[in-house]
Amino acid sequence: ASKQAQLMEVLKKEVRAMLIAAKAGLTPEQLEEQYMAMVCKPLPLRDLGFQCTLELVTQMPEVVRICSSKNGTLVLKAIADDSTKGIAKLVANQKVKTRSKASKKTATKVNAAFPTKNSKNPQSFQTPSAGAPVLPAAVKAELQDLLSSSPLLLEDLDKAFLRRFGRAFQYRQYGFSSMSEVLGSMSDSVVIKQTQAGSLLVLREYLANNIEQEEVPQASAAEMPPLEPICETERYQAALLMDSEPLQTQAVCLGDHLKRRQGFGHLSPTPEMPPDAVQDKSLCSLPPLKRRCLVGVIAEFVISPSQFYIHVCSTEASYKLQDLMFEMRHVYSHKVASDKYIMPESAVRPGQLCCVMVSKWWYRVIIHRVINDQEVEVFCADYGHLQIVQKSWLRFLKWHYSKLPAQAIPCSLAWVKPVEGTWSSAAILLFKHLCRFKELVGIVDEYVNGVLYLFLCDTSTKEDVYFHSVLRDMGYADVCGENIPSQEFEELNPSALYVQPSGKQGNAEVVEPDLCLQQESRDADSETAASKLDGAKL
Q: Within this chain, do residues 376 and 469 fall inside the same structural domain, yes or no?
């Protein structure tokens, strides 16, 4: 009974956090999906003696208000307590901003909120627009793939998406209020033409010319789990559909095999190894961001405030990763080419750069550890996560696919530490909600042991929301005025193990963030003072 009571109290906090973050509320089904995505397992209905989610929330009258929408659907909304009223107010004030107004307003507010110690009214920074909903890269690629074979009527999109990918296209979970808003965010690649039959969605010619129809090897959903760990929302597709427990990634001692990688035995090309297969090469990282610059970012994979990975919002970099995925899919999906790059057992070893197919898409990965005769754990350098996959899914990476730098940047939230020594599940849940499917403004502080420490700000509300302040105000974090090395990354940082720092690989293709996203302080002689934020304003 005491365990049930403790579980119920924890669950109330988690449910309240989820519902507060959803401005319009959630249906019971949506609550189940979001809980699975955030907590990595289904709602503990049976453990608490409930038959359904609605029965559960009726026993939380101080947490959940059950409402009825205009169409009769039940909607669950949060009842804020004293500690969450401020967050609820911020969420209620959320609004959609135009790009030009957002940029101008955010620049003014960020400058006002982050003065340097030697300047009362600096005009040092220019911020990118942020706050608009953003489709995950893999979902955007799926829509483009769906339209690559032929145009599609808007009214048929949902059915076609469900038929192709085995799930409904739930655009609302990415922050969009309508399908037209989704298509507006893809105006660079999708055109809407009005016909007598209705609105016709057409992939722009410049992109469609690069995509050829191909016969993709058939695989069942059971054989192809998503590459992204089950416990993360973001970025691929079937996390909400999985019923299994999350995989537990273990830190392993890699000293021996890393020493071997320094003199990585060069494997001579054989009939089993094409001459253009990557053997002893590593990906390089993106160039470091300048201290105090403001940059648009998307949190791709979040474990905690001290351990997450971001993508820099750069049109050029985004297209290059997207084009790489399309080209890899085109090449490796043909059986002759796929068989040519099958990796022999001797090449399947920790530190080997290769690629893996998951749900018809190919991703660049590094083998982290060999688990058994059938499975390996790989690190996805472009998205930041570890995942267990079958050895048979691995292929040698073609040499020219290794030129693009690894796109995932390991990060920690600057100037904060958990009040309890480790981040509580409620703190992690809140941080994930703050990051979820949004373009954010990052304020770069510094790099520590290869990890980027930055402040994060959501500018999609009437008042800018600084994540370190939210965690502090909720009682989850202390603002300490310095960056304490992330314990999580100290235990295991795959990027540091497997990705070469920018500039150490001569033939690597350098991808700089958009210039408008990286503005250095014009006060060049006060770099030291500008490197830290005014603690009084935190």
A: yes
| Radius of gyration (C-alpha) of the chain in whole angstroms | 24
Do residues 46 and 174 share a domain?
Answer: no
Tell how strand 451-458 and strand 409-413 pair up.
Answer: parallel
Sequence-separated (6 or more) residues with CB below 8 Å from residue 384: 300, 301, 308, 309, 408, 410, 495
d(CA 132, CA 97): 7
DSSP result, 138-178: HHHHHHHHHHHSS-EEGGGHHHHHHHHHSS---GGGGT-SS
Residue 198 — left, alpha, or beta (φ > 0 → left; ψ -120 to 50 → alpha)?
left
> Which residues does residue 190 pair with via DSSP β-bridges, in sequence order?
203
Domain count within the chain: 3
DSSP string, 286-351: PPPPPTT-EEEEEEEEEEETTEEEEEE--HHHHHHHHHHHHHHHHHHTSHHHHHHTBPPGGG--TT
**309 and 451 co-located in one domain:** yes
Give me the domain span that covers residue 51: 3-79
Q: Tell whether 476 is covered by a domain.
A: yes
Q: Does 449 lie in the same domain as 335?
A: yes
DSSP states along 380-397: ETTT--EEEEEGGGEEEP
Q: Is residue 195 part of a domain?
A: yes
Give the type of residue at 136.
P
Question: Could you report the average pLDDT of every consecutive run of 10 residues in the chain (538 residues)?
Answer: 86 87 83 76 86 88 86 84 69 50 42 38 37 74 79 83 79 76 82 76 61 40 37 32 35 42 46 82 94 93 96 80 90 89 94 92 96 96 95 95 96 95 92 88 95 94 90 93 92 95 53 38 34 42
> Is residue 84 classed as helix, strand or coil in its secondary structure?
coil
